[in-house]
Amino acid sequence: MTNAVPPRQDPEQPWRSEGAPPPRPPRRPRRGIGVWGGMIVAALAVFLITDLLLSVFGGSSTRSVPYTEFSKELSAGNVTKIYAKGDAIQGELRKPARVPGGSGTYREFSTLRPSFADDPVWSELTKHDVTVTAEPVVQQRSFLANLLISLAPMLVLVALWVLIARRMSGALSGGLGGLGRKAPPKPVVPGEDSKRTTFEDVAGIDEVEAELSEVVDFLKRPDAYRRLGARMPRGVLLSGPPGTGKTLLARAVAGEADVPFFSASASEFIEMIVGVGAGRVRELFAEARKDAPSIIFIDEIDTIGRARGSGGGLGGHDEREQTLNQILTEMDGFSGSEGVVVIAATNRADVLDPALTRPGRFDRTVSVSPPDRGGREAILRIHTREVPLAPDVDLARVARTTPGMTGAELANLTNEAALLAVKRDRDDVGPGELSDALEKVQLGAERPLVMPEEERRRTAYHESGHALLGMLQPGADPVRKVTIVPRGRALGVTLSTPDADRYAYTEPYLRGRVIGALGGMAAEQTVFGVVTTGAESDLEQVTNIVRGMVGRWGMSERIGRLTALPQDAQQAYGLSAAPATLDAVDAEMRRIVDECYEEAGRLLTAHRPQLDALAEALLERETLDESEAYRTAGIPRLTKPEG
């Protein structure tokens, strides 16, 4: 029994074992002036050669002579025939005559009769029996000249075809004859072109870092895993809402592993010409293999990776499917020893094709969620490293007032606060700048709008209705701020955020949100007896909540515990509800909204003095913070949420 000898590693390329096929030599850059330049050069060459040959072999022996010389020969009876057109005369002599003032003789001649000549040319012609033809002479070309003129277009077409054929043979990977080709993708090498990104620049998603740290260890110590028979994951899919840091995570993995990073957006592969996207995918993976170990990052992969047959995505249907098939083929070609890991990001993992997410292609799917309160505080500390903060700034308090915000939104919040500090000529960023920046991000920028007093009063009651119902509903999110200062598209805003992050919602809580959202419309109906267009965004929020309650979350006894309103990916596989079920969903949605609207009107009528007090305070001060709003309404602040 013999022991198997492990393959010897190439010291210069540790990822390539002895016996493996040699690396593909680098492609030499193409030289030349391109297809159009070659066409122009070929056409010019053909025309120049044709003109030269015509001038040498196809020239005429006709001699141009003065009109006096013609008259002299005519009087001497030496002209046998002429061809005339207007004042131009061409003809032939009976006997060759000597060239006037020069050497040699001529027989065929041409001349031009002056307009002021009054000699009897016709009499002389008839007197000497000259054959007269009143037609122009067609110049006779030689056989060689006619042959060249006939072949010139054919020569140009042949030259064009040869150039295109050579172009296609050398650039099939780039689409139709290289059309649509771009420069070969270049990797981002940590520490060269930009600042190196590591896990120290990522916060709030520790569980995701733990998943990706194994990929980093694979790239750093491949031999340790290979000894135990473990193979490197071919692909990692990062799924999460926009702004949660998926691209930053991919860069951090490359920075921690100290490997080249190839970044591309999936929309870059979609072209009008079928086959161009697939060619770019091949080129991207080929370049990554050359620089292995390396990482390929494909952002927004749902652009080309949607479930086939759904008809979604950008670009032509055939082009998108060919590009997706090429990605699947390239990932199937990984043997685990190349040292290339594909990381993709998407906001819609539910619409991806099952062939893309199966094990062996994207082996891991990592969910990247918005950070919790501790994560938000850590993210704020990262984004304020280079921002001078006032001593009284409490980032933990800022993190408590920003539930649901992603890392990108927190970075924007920090930047807006710094911009406000510059405008106010401050040397640091204080709590006031952070608070005002949060209002600008959450509520929108203030608008200098002067409203009529009647409309301003209706807006005050509208926002007071939202705020009062938010205070009265058990377990509702606390009211943080109420204002009738126009911000963004809204004439007024009521801001309510939870004390702690919520990850699941009960039916009473959702009904309370619906009642609070309908409070503005109910207040206008109760006080003024009218309904205005100011409730548009409220009704959109109500519709989304109730649609989820009835159609997706099983909170209706009539519909039952099923998903009647499937998501896009489920619709692609024909999992849509029957028309009768959809009619029942609409009826249930209307019933719940009507019940909540009646409850909102009843509560506002029962607490009319508090509604009036809030409206008058808003008309006087325009903005009420949390403590002022609860004190004005005379309602104690409940700190223990229900449900």
From TrEMBL:
PROSITE patterns named among the record's database cross-references: AAA
Its chief place of residence is membrane
Cellular location of this protein?
Cell membrane; Membrane
Q: Which residues form a coiled coil?
A: none
Q: How is the cofactor bound?
A: Binds 1 zinc ion per subunit.
Q: Which residues bind Zn(2+)?
A: 462, 466, 538
Which coenzyme or cofactor does it need? Zn(2+)
The UniProt entry, under SUPFAM superfamilies, shows: FtsH protease domain-like, P-loop containing nucleoside triphosphate hydrolases
Query: Keywords in UniProt for this one?
Result: ATP-binding, Cell membrane, Hydrolase, Membrane, Metal-binding, Metalloprotease, Nucleotide-binding, Protease, Transmembrane, Transmembrane helix, Zinc
Where is region (Disordered) located?
1-30
Q: Which GO terms describe its molecular function?
A: metallopeptidase activity
| Active site residues of this protein | 463
Q: Is Cell membrane a UniProt keyword of this protein?
A: yes
Q: Known SMART domains for this protein?
A: AAA
Q: What is its EC number?
A: 3.4.24.-
Binding residues annotated for ATP, in chain numbering: 240-247
User: Which segments constitute the AAA+ ATPase domain?
Assistant: 232-372
Classification via PANTHER family? ATP-DEPENDENT ZINC METALLOPROTEASE YME1L1 (PTHR23076:SF97), METALLOPROTEASE M41 FTSH (PTHR23076)
What task does this protein carry out? Acts as a processive, ATP-dependent zinc metallopeptidase for both cytoplasmic and membrane proteins. Plays a role in the quality control of integral membrane proteins.
Q: Which family does it belong to?
A: In the central section; belongs to the AAA ATPase family.
What quaternary structure, including any partners, is listed in this protein's UniProt entry?
Answer: Homohexamer.
**What protein am I looking at?**
ATP-dependent zinc metalloprotease FtsH
Q: What species does this protein belong to?
A: Streptantibioticus parmotrematis
The opening ranks of the lineage are:
Bacteria, Bacillati, Actinomycetota, Actinomycetes, Kitasatosporales
Instruction: Give me the gene this protein comes from.
Output: ftsH
